[in-house]
Amino acid sequence: MEPTVLTQSLVNGLLIGGIYALISVGLTLIFGVMRIINFAHGDLMMLAMYGTYWMFTLYGIDPYLSLIVTVPILFVIGSLIQKFLVNQVLEGADASQLFLTLGVMLVAQNVALLFWKADYRAIRTDYSVYAIRLGEVFVSVPRLTSFVVAIILTCLLYVFLARTRTGRAMRATAQDREVSSLMGVNVRQTYILAFGIGTACVGAAGTLLSTFYYISPTVGTAFTLMAFLAVVLGGMGSFTGAFFGGLVVGLAESIGAVYFATQYKELVTFSLFILVLLVRPSGLLGKSRM
Amino acid sequence: MADSHGSAYATFEANQTTGLETAREKKLRRIVMHVKYEISWDDSMSGFHQSWEAVRSRLLAIKSRSGITKIQAVILVALIMIPSAAAYWYYQSIQVTSKEIVIAAPLPLSGTMATIGVSCQRGHDLAVEDINAAGGVKALGGAKLRIVYGDIKSDPTVTTSETERLINTYHPTVILGAYASSLTYVATEVSERNKVPFLAPMAQADAITDRGFKYVFRQAIRASSVGAKAIDMIVEMAKDFGTPVNTIAIVYENTLWGQTSAEAARKHAPEVGFTIVYNEAYSQGSSDLSPVVTKLKAADPDVVVLASYLNDAILMARTFHELDFNALGYVAMGGGYLEPDFINSAGKDSEYFFAGSGWQRDLNIPGMADVVRRYEEKYPGIFMNEHAGLCYAATWLIKEVLELSAKLHPDKPLDPDSIRDAFLNIDISSGPAVMTAGGRAKFNEKGDNIYGTHVYLQVLGGAQRTVWPFDRASADAVWPAPPWNQRD
Questions:
Q1: Which domains are assigned to chain B?
Q2: Which residue of A118, B354, B390, B444 has the fewest C-beta atoms within 10 A of its own C-beta?
């Protein structure tokens, strides 16, 4: 275990883990508030990635600047999906909700495939290959910047949930839907807000990822899976749990890739997941409050 | 209000007949204590009941709002399905005239190998244009060639179904495909089952012709030779430039081509005295190669031998730069490193990479310069590379095979066995069909072209220049490659 290799892989893992955390936090918001398994989570992120790509390619807008555009647009898209699609099946069987988000996933993927083909695209900015050198460890500039922005956004979201009235209404709805409606919380509106914010999170993550990750119509699937992994690992219904879950998954992947054959990095992540659940079935941070 | 609130609570409390409350009731009671007057309380429980009824009926009203009716659902589905089906049938209806010879070409036109597939397609198209302009297949009365393409999406499962579809829809005489070894391997299974002759212009994995198939032929060099040639080139470069090379690393994509060529390099390296300090596969199509490069840096090889398709190649070059991995030489055994897009997308990071190629535009083969010029006029900004070049030659080779087949079996020239016979008897050493590094086509019993070979190019000044074997070089190689921090 050479210290340089270990440190480099820890750094890489942490940096990508920050973005995983942002995605997971978005998912836990949706799942916690509405108990909906959102299969389309990663694919909404994919839409944000394409949005960033086209803004960069056609208008030369830097990916970090395009956050100002993609986050609100994804928020609106998420709200519309909740308002016109998911809200209709809220009272129905759980299976309907599952299939609905599955349907959204398939539609998003295939629309992207239709318009933009399956070719991989990448955003290459001037700073894409810059790396800050700390001793023997190289920290890639786009990854670091994305990590910092992701952490800031996660903290903002936490403050929103903890301190503002609307945030507390959302947490109340997550705890008990019927009683919250008795308390005067407009449950349907809260759902729309929750889905919107969750999608906005994932949209921000997509924009941040696109600075160093490949963009293709199917890129979202792996992230949806990873987000579920992180959310369950950290403890369902727990905001901080999802956050740390994301970091843990990032670290596990990175260390697994370096110390086992690169092909088996997912094996490490999933084995860790199974181990944690065996020892602590409710996840690392359990059934704590959001 | 506080009073009524308090008394309502008291009434509620009083209605608990047992001391056992469920958790839910406890919670409800706790929250009720903090309610903010959204529901007006009367002094009696009847008021509470009324309000609760109001809320409950509102909730029930929402619940009973139904979705669309069955009829509406059926109409909606029909509205979506019918235009889709119509579009599909429209695109499938293509007339096949009798004076045409249909060649099917399953190629990866989307997915991770998309750009390469498109290069192949361009090579085929130019060849078909030239062949038809020159009078088609003369021995078959000037029959023209027609290629139909199928997109196999860089995926083996799709390759199987797409090849089946092409065979069943167009009944081709011959199949040209499918670029990658992993995809060609499965496509040839389908073609062999259907007894359609298959010519693979570029797939190198030995396994493709090692299965005893009768109708599979390969124009390119075998992967086992590719790996060995890479090592030989390194030996000669090291000797010529006076830099001792002792340790090598082998980094390869994990599908059939990567594995076979890496295996060959792995076998030959110790025979010339190299020590292999790193030998690992990575998942083809990975989005992040930093773990690989981190480990490479720790292993510190003199030279690194690579096998990647396009996207991985670009990512690899950029990650080398990002993590400051330096070696004397970056020797790629072909694949994505041969694409113009490698140079375009990786930019300066692609400089000094070697790549093994079965075709090069600066080899002095008669007639080649003209073909290259016309290709580059047709597709401005894109230089002709191995993928386009070998596909061009392969299409002409098919034409020559058809001519021979018509001569040997004039009664049934398009029969699979006649075409097979023609393949086994052909021996050409001039003309566009052998505008390859090998310069000659003759197939053995297995289906391999015994004259398939490789030259090595290096990316110099943003262009591919042949640098090895030295007697065929058009430019001097640069060895060792300057470290990243010394490049501009």
A1: 2-64 (no CATH), 100-217+381-442 (3.40.50.2300), 224-357+454-486 (3.40.50.2300)
A2: B444
